[in-house]
UniProtKB/TrEMBL annotation, chain A:
Belongs to the ABC transporter superfamily. Pfam families: ABC_tran, Wzt_C. Keywords: ATP-binding, Nucleotide-binding, Transport. CDD domains: ABC_KpsT_Wzt (cd03220), Wzt_C-like (cd10147). The gene is rfbB. This is ABC transporter ATP-binding protein. Residues 44-269 form the ABC transporter domain. It comes from Flavobacterium limi. GO terms for molecular function: ATP binding. InterPro entries: AAA+_ATPase, ABC_transporter-like_ATP-bd, ABC_transpr_TagH-like, Bact_Polysacc_Export_ATP-bd, P-loop_NTPase, Wzt_C. It comes from the Bacteria. SMART domains: AAA.
Automatic annotation (TrEMBL), chain B:
Keywords: Cell inner membrane, Cell membrane, Membrane, Transmembrane, Transmembrane helix, Transport. It holds the Pfam family ABC2_membrane. Residues 51-279 form the ABC transmembrane type-2 domain. It is a multi-pass membrane protein. It is found in: Cell inner membrane; Cell membrane. It comes from Flavobacterium limi. The keyword tRNA-binding does not apply. This is Transport permease protein. PANTHER family: INNER MEMBRANE TRANSPORT PERMEASE (PTHR30413), TRANSPORT PERMEASE PROTEIN (PTHR30413:SF8). The chain crosses the membrane at residues 54-75, 135-154, 166-186, 198-217, 253-276.
Length: 425, 287
């Protein structure tokens, strides 16, 4: 039997754009006038969908529209979506910070929200006092906090400073202390915004580990919003994709992440190179088109770690290419070379009657670590003659698909992942 | 769908609060938070000051001295055998508590927006904590009043206690509730219209002059018969007048006035709860 712990029915949230001031009173009066006549709020009928980039006609927008979903006990639901998709608004409604404009949320458990760590921290008070204050704000009783105080202090790793005012803490220490309090919350449902994107690597690992403990061993329900897809992939079992204030799809986390990464049609692609026509006149051997393609033959700049990357190059030839080499360099986000692929054109081109051909280079999967990369392409001879060089093009992102390093997403742990062998001697 | 689908939900989140849906159970659950807020307010006031809690004493003392000079010595308000200073100190101590409650609660939503925007707890905890922590401040100021009372007693003034002083705590509670109620109403309006925070800043100043703080109510009635009603309709004037009766045996108690004050307070408090409840649900979108 399904054990549904949380259920959202027709949740919508409307926001008024522009400055609150002029027109506010007239709208308020109008709203009130409708209300005493027993009619619905007139402003709930209008409003644009929440598309940040286009200019709308209405003063009102729907940050959320018709949100319906259910969460089962013990589920860890990852909510993903672009900026402005309505994720945070949804979390705010779930944590009762703001009310929905329409709809209801029904819950069978106590909800604790972590939209920020260290809410209500007071710099003048000591670490210990702040543990109590912050814990109480998050909904713990004094008794609960007292019984866990030692664990909290231990987890934070700030025991030496615990009786010092928090304003003397480094920002990292403040975050550690704050997260430690939150980690020992015991609600049935925990709502977490991207609070883990703080602190150092060791601490992030600890934080994710703690969240996993909470969900796996204690069977608690977690709703988790993050842009770190690796963390979502490791932590969550269910996923929910949102876009422009609506739910696009719900499902298992891997399905949802895959869907999120699908290229959007009509978007200008960073992974495509097309040369400027004028610059080609002087060139004898040159690239006419370069693109990156995934294993499903789709043009994309987003690759999973477990996916191979196909680079499709079109090259035009107007001269003898006997000694010409095609070189491809993979560069990390600081434009440092990660590795180079190269080959002699004569070895690639079998039919040399054409002056135009396309070649594909496949970068194997499970090697290049999740991160941002770009490429440098060159056609040259060993004697130093350069026919064409294109730098810093085809920006791609490799996302984590659940490697052992997913906890460290966003932290530099190198550009390649090599499956090492470990032996006890 | 299963058979438990539509029942035994622990709670629901809906667009609107029911009026008067003050959830006492929930407030009780958060009592530790109330206590910790009070503690925070008390602790942080003293931090990094040399005089610390002495600041609580300096303000009423100096105000009383100035009032005594201006109103009693210059303007010649008579206090019928009582030391004018003690008369003023009593009024100011009482008034300070009310003003602190109102000032402290009136910008609840504005000053706590960052906390309220991140986490839920019954919002009423914050204004409640203001009223309670100001009670501490009032206690300290009241001690200084007692000090001067004893001083004047041994100085030969004929000071007698009134039996009704037993009801003094009740009077304080009524005053606190009135401040809380008004504060909740204003704080709810400030979330949308900032104008009210300017209004309250000088409004409290003006209200003091209408609240019989530095003069007995009788005096206004006899000197300004046509405008005396302004003071007569001010519930605060009755509270302050009554407190002087209890503490200094000065003036008299108006039972009808007290009844009026009591009713007024209850109404203001419930209206306050009502608008506060309504505001707390979505203030974060407008503040």
């Amino acid at each position: 039997m399904k054990d549904i712990i949380l259920k959202a029915e027709n949740i919508s949230k409307q926001y008024r754009l522009g400055e609150v001031g002029t027109g506010t009173i007239s709208h308020d009066v109008n709203r009130w006038w409708y209300k005493i006549r027993g009619k619905e709020n007139p402003y709930l009928k209008i409003g644009d969908t929440n598309d940040r980039s286009t200019k709308g006609n209405s003063d009102y927008v729907w940050a959320l529209q018709d949100i319906n979903f259910e969460v089962q006990r013990g589920d860890v639901l990852g909510i993903i979506g672009k900026n402005g998709a309505g994720k945070s608004t949804l979390l705010k409604i779930l944590s009762k910070v703001t009310a929905p404009s329409t709809g209801t949320i029904k819950s069978r458990g106590r909800i604790a929200s972590l939209l920020e760590v260290g809410t209500g921290f007071n710099g003048e008070m000591t670490g210990r006092e702040n543990i109590f204050l912050n814990g109480a704000i998050l909904g713990m009783t004094k008794k609960e906090i007292t019984s866990k105080l030692d664990e909290i202090i231990d987890f934070s790793g700030c025991s030496r400073y615990i009786d010092t005012p928090v304003k003397r803490y480094s920002s990292g220490m403040t975050v550690r202390l704050a997260f430690a309090v939150a980690a020992f919350l015991e609600p049935e449902i925990l709502v977490v915004d991207e609070v883990l994107a703080v602190g150092d690597a060791e601490f992030q690992k600890k934080a994710i580990g703690k969240m996993q403990d909470i969900s796996k061993s204690e069977g608690r329900t977690i709703l988790f919003v993050s842009h770190q897809l690796g963390s979502v992939a490791t932590l969550c079992n269910k996923g929910m994709l949102m876009d422009k204030g609506r739910i696009v799809d719900c499902g298992t986390v891997s399905e949802i992440i895959e869907q999120y990464l699908l290229p959007e049609s009509g978007e200008t692609k960073a992974n495509l190179y097309l040369p400027n026509v004028e610059s080609l006149n002087s060139k004898k051997i040159f690239f006419t088109k370069i693109e990156t393609i995934n294993s499903n033959n789709q043009n994309t700049d987003y690759f999973g770690f477990n996916e191979s990357i196909k680079i499709r190059l079109s090259i035009a030839i107007k001269e003898d290419f006997k000694n010409v080499v095609l070189g491809i360099g993979l560069q990390d986000k600081f434009n440092t070379r990660v590795c180079t692929f190269m080959n002699n054109l004569v070895d690639i081109i079998v039919d040399n009657s054409k002056d135009n051909f396309t070649v594909e280079v496949i970068v194997p999967s499970n090697i290049i670590a999740p991160n941002h990369y770009s490429f440098i392409f060159a056609l040259y001879e060993f004697n130093g003659r350069v026919y064409d060089v294109i730098e810093n093009v085809c920006n791609i992102k490799i996302h984590d698909t659940g490697t052992i390093f997913s906890k460290y997403e966003g932290i530099d742990y190198g550009n390649v992942i090599i499956n090492s062998k470990w032996e006890i001697i | 769908m299963n058979n438990t689908d539509n029942k035994d939900w622990l709670f629901e989140i809906t667009p609107k609060n029911n009026f008067f849906s003050l959830n006492f159970k929930e407030i009780w659950q958060y009592r530790d938070l109330l206590f910790l807020f009070v503690k925070r307010d008390v602790i942080t006031v003293y931090k990094q000051t040399v005089l610390g809690p002495l600041w609580y004493l300096i303000q009423p003392l100096f105000t009383s001295v100035i009032f005594t000079i201006i109103f009693n010595n210059v303007a010649g308000i008579k206090t019928e055998g009582l030391p004018s200073f003690l008369f003023n100190l009593a009024g100011i101590t009482m008034w300070n508590y009310f003003a602190a409650c109102l000032n402290g609660t009136a910008d609840t939503f504005k000053t706590n927006a960052s906390i309220f925007g991140k986490v839920y707890f019954p919002r009423i905890i914050t204004p409640l904590s203001v009223v309670i922590s100001n009670l501490m401040k009032f206690g300290i100021q009241f001690l200084i009043f007692i000090g001067f009372y004893i001083f004047y007693y041994f100085d030969g003034y004929n000071l007698t206690l009134n039996l009704s002083i037993l009801f003094f705590p009740v009077l304080i509670v009524i005053m606190g509730i009135l401040g809380l109620g008004l504060g909740m109403i204003i704080s709810s309006m400030v979330t949308k219209y900032r104008d009210f925070s300017y209004l309250i800043a000088f409004g409290i100043q003006l209200l003091m002059y209408l609240s019989a703080v530095m003069y007995p109510m009788e005096l206004v009635k006899s000197k300004l018969p046509s405008y005396g009603w302004v003071v007569e309709y001010n519930p605060l004037a009755y509270i302050i007048e009554t407190s002087r009766y209890m503490l200094l045996n000065f003036g008299h108690i108006s039972l009808s006035g007290l009844l009026y004050t009591f009713t007024f307070t209850i109404i203001v408090f419930f209206v306050g709860l009502l608008v506060f409840n309504k505001a707390e649900k979505s203030f974060i979108d407008t503040v």
